[in-house]
Amino acid sequence: MDELFRLTDEFSSLKDDCSADGRIFFSQGRIVPHDGRIIPHVGRINFFVKQRTFFKTKVLFFDTFIFTKNTGNLSLIENISIKISIRSGYMIIKECEIPLKVHMLEALMRRLPPDHARQPILNLDIKKIKAGYSGEYRVLSTLNALPEKEYLLFHDLRLIGSPFPFQMDILILTSYFLLIIEVKNMAGEIYFDNTFNQLIRTNTDGKTEAFDDPILQVNRQRQQLLEWLKSKKIFNIPVETLVVSANSSTIIRAENRDINRKVIRKDSIFIKIGEFKEKYKKKILSTRDMKRISTLLLDEHTPYIPKLLESYGIPINALQTGVYCHKCYAFSMERRLRKWICRICLHSSNDAHISALQDYVCLVKPTITNSEFRQFLQLKSPSSAKKLLTSLKLNHSGHTKGRVYSLRSIIEDRTK
Ligand SMILES: [Zn+2]
Fold first, then answer.
1. Is the pTM of this model over 0.90?
2. CATH number for the domain that contains residue 334
3. C-alpha 346 – ligand 1 centre gap (Å)
4. Could you tell me the distance, in angstroms and rounded to a whole number, from the CA of residue 209 to the centre of ligand 1?
5. Ligand 1 ion local residues (Cβ < 5 A)
6. CA of 325 relative to ligand 1 center, distance in Å
7. Residues 296, 326: one domain?
8. What is the per-residue pLDDT for 402?
9. Rounded to whole angstroms, what are the CA distances from 239 to 174, 179, 223, 373?
10. Span 229-255, pLDDT tens digits
């Protein structure tokens, strides 16, 4: 999703309009939530920002928000994620987004009974991914101060390399060099052990844990990126690497002092970029080359879609079927008179089936038939299932009963 929120002049004073309780007031704009629904022009929106620490100058990211639409009839939508970009120029090409895996894990937690044995580990895994993400977010926010147009930033790119795909936390593209940044967001003390090529973390309780050496990881990414560039006939552009510790309280120790050339704290990032700028004075890529490479990187970005049920050893029949209510979260939505009505809280919705399909695509598979749709959504009528599927304008193949609908557009809304 490119520009989710086009800002008028009124929005530039956004920060000043943020009230003490975290509400922000806008006057106009267009919102496209992750589930693909388009809410056209809105009269006035009240955002309730739950994560005010994410409130930075250029990119705002609200995990959960509530907004009211004061256009005569007031409506309240809860718990949908939205990203608002306030950007000038095109500096952040691929923006910082909550990883798809978090949405997938949340779908899994929602569809499993609350007392299911896997719930605690799912919760823990979401926390770990979110911690990694918030480190990357902090580093990207810092990098936002770099001059626009000269430094193109990409977050969480995953390219198909040989023999394996490779993923880079942050990639910076300049006319003179490329820089791959691996972000570590670990509390406590980290120790780089060169003998065994591992990273040992000791947390504040004294507990130790070993991880793969991020310097080796980022070097591997460099090799794969060079191969990838070669396959696109892009030669001679130097590729540098850095490991950045995003957490300012982390104590970094190493066996080998040379490590400070490769591992830095977030606050030293501009010094390091300045050194690369000094080192590479020859302009290699024209503005046109930069645009071409940006387009290639974005086109070839292939998000990783994990098979969660398999990796957590959960059988498909453990999943709760049905359509859940966005207000009380019970799987209690029933199709009545072309609407979804919650039999518990009477909340009504026109499109609650979309959230159910998002869960399906996250957990089961990227295609669905009419009978699978009815089974997963607990819908009895084949004709209303057909109407709902047709209304989504999904690509499909086959005819009548054998028709298979592709849910790719639904997952793309989650991954863009
Ligand atoms: Zn309800």
1. no
2. 1.10.10
3. 6
4. 43
5. 325, 327-328, 342, 344-345, 347
6. 5
7. no
8. 82
9. 10, 6, 9, 47
10. 999 999 889 999 999 999 988 999 888
